[in-house]
Amino acid sequence: MQRRAIFNNRFLPYLLLAPQIIITIIFFFWPASQAIYQSLLRQDPFGLRTTFIYFENFQEVLSDPLYLEAFQVTIVFSISVTVFVMALALLFAVMADRQIRGARAYKALLLWPYALAPAVAAVLWVFIFHPSIGIIGKALNNAGVPWDYKLNGAEALLLVVIASSWKQIAHNFLFFLAGLQSVPIAVVEAAMIDGASAWKLFRSILFPLISPTTFYLLTVNLVFAFFDTFGVIHSLTDGGPGRSTTTLMYKVYTDGYVNLNLGQSAAQSVILMVIVTGLVWLQFRFVEGKVHYS
Amino acid sequence: MIIAKQFRNLPIHLTLIVAIIVFAFPVYLALIGSTWDAGTIGRGQMPLVPGPNGLDNYLNALTTGQGGRVRGVAVQLLLWNSFQMAIVITFGKIVISILSAYAVAFFKFPLRTFFFWMIFITLMLPIEVRIAPTYKVMSDLNLINTFAGLTIPLMASATGTLLFRQFFLTIPDELVEAAKIDGAGPLRFFWSIAFPLSRTNIAALFVILFIYGWNQYLWPLLVTTGRDMETIVIGIVKMMGTGEAQTDWNIIMASTVFALLPPVAIVILMQQWFVKGLVQTEK
């Protein structure tokens, strides 16, 4: 989109753009190109010699069982978070959307967890699910269900999913509610006059009409699960026990920052960039009205 | 009829109330935990009602950040660090993005589309995907453990620019033309018209960005090594460590309450701005 009335000035626009462009080049493009460059190199352990090895790093990474394991963890983790978050958020939104008393208060009371840092959410949930001092963790153990997220991988993953989903449910709830409230009331009333049940109304009218929101949230949640949950995993499980909560993102961090395996970490970074690009592309396709019914 | 309708709504109210209670429960427990002593919590005997040690715990956390086992940093310092970081990122980001959006929306110049895409594409390069090379750039520039290194890289991102550009494009051409006829140059137009008209957008963005800055985790973890630069979020995670039962959970929970209070208060008190900002920055 372009406006008709514009100013003419030869230098001013560049001056206005300069701060953002300079920061972007130094802290975005330079490191990203370094990542691509390094992903094609191998450095000996002392950093004395560098060899160009084409796509060998990618080959190694993609055939590394540990990486494939992280891939699997990521898929299980992000699908769990996405499904869990969207199902609950949609349920709450449909309910709060009804013309009921106190709808505004409900909205306010379901929104605030969005403000929490993922790592702070993790600390709060540890306090609940700690095997010996947490109120639920202790109760589970007392009831004969062995619960220790520090020893059991599946339990660790479950706890990470819960801690990550909490704030994201608040976020999705807001967007679903906005989507539902933009459905014209006449459409809903017409369906009710035709005798549609609540379920039928939701399935045949509301759900199709909010499909742009749904697809948008799908990609947002996947990006969130991939990247923004780093704080939860780092503070809660450190990727363990074993490697049961090591996602792709967490592995880039441990390989590159902790173990200093630069070539392989760079190759992993490049793979992640491709994934993000794909997700952002999907998001814009859908937002641009691919799934519109109006 | 009315009564019947009220009863039909009962399951809805119940579900929503249960959801609210579940949502609030972790914070409630943190509030309770912050009022007992470490021993009671460590034995797994914490009741569900407030205890007698609240004031001590909060004062202790605020001024020392230390308990019998926890060797943390005083929470007042952590809060101050987080506040500085969040506020500088917020202001920096708003200033940088409103300027670049103004350039893209109101000027025609060579390479304009190129620059716009350059900003736009950063959406695909979150810090998480390029940790090691970014760290290397930071250490080459001697920015590790500096306040500039902590804040400046987080100031540039596409969201603010996209939002302001979107808004600037809705300013009617007639208004721009009228201003030009009255002799206003681009800077005058910005100060007297474009900037004041952006007030609500700025307010909405401010709320979102402050929370974004306050909640940063990975970046401060990489860039700061000295404890005097620790933020409250990192400080709490360090206090918790591996989460032993026998640690000063009372101090940790008091600190956690301090950490979540500012962003939660902002969301509740400025809910309208928050909702507006959230919907706008993402769409």
Keywords:
A: about 290 residues, mainly alpha, MetI-like fold, two-stranded antiparallel sheet, globular, disordered C terminus, B: about 280 residues, 16 helices
Secondary-structure topology with pairs:
The complex is a heterodimer of chains A (294) and B (283).
Chain A (H helix, E strand, L loop, with lengths): L11 H27 L2 E3 L6 E3 L3 H8 L1 H33 L5 H9 L6 H12 L5 H8 L10 H29 L3 H9 L4 H12 L1 H18 L1 H7 L11 H11 L3 H29 L4
Antiparallel strand pairs in A: 1-2
Chain B lengths: L1 H7 L1 H24 L4 H5 L11 H10 L11 H32 L5 H9 L10 H10 L6 H5 L6 H11 L4 H9 L4 H12 L1 H16 L3 H6 L8 H9 L8 H21 L1 H12 L1
Helix pairs in contact in B: 2-15, 4-15, 5-9, 5-12, 12-16, 14-15, 15-16
- In spatial order, strands of the major sheet of chain A run 1-2
Radius of gyration of chain B: 24 Å
- String of helices and strands of chain A: HEEHHHHHHHHHHHH
Low-confidence stretches of chain A: 290-294
CATH topology of chain B: MetI-like fold
Succession of helices and strands of chain B: HHHHHHHHHHHHHHHH
CATH architecture assignment of chain B:
Orthogonal Bundle
Largest sheet of chain B: none
CATH architecture of the domain at 78-258 and 278-290 in chain A: Orthogonal Bundle
The CATH homologous superfamily of chain B is named: MetI-like
Q: State which percent range the strand residues of chain B make up.
A: under 5%
Helical content band of chain A: over 70%
Tally of individual helices of chain B: 16
CATH topology of the domain at 78-258 and 278-290 in chain A: MetI-like fold
Number of helices of chain A: 13
Question: Nearest-angstrom radius of gyration of chain A?
Answer: 24 Å
Under CATH at level 1, the class of chain B stands as Mainly Alpha
Report on the architecture of this protein.
- With 294 residues, chain A is an all-alpha fold.
- Helices cover 72% and strands 2% of the residues of chain A.
- In chain A, α1 (12-38) packs across α13 (262-290).
- The longest helix of chain A has 33 residues, at 65-97.
- Chain B has 283 residues and is mainly α.
- At the A-B interface, α1, α3, α4, α5 and α7 of A face α2, α5, α6, α7 and α10 of B.
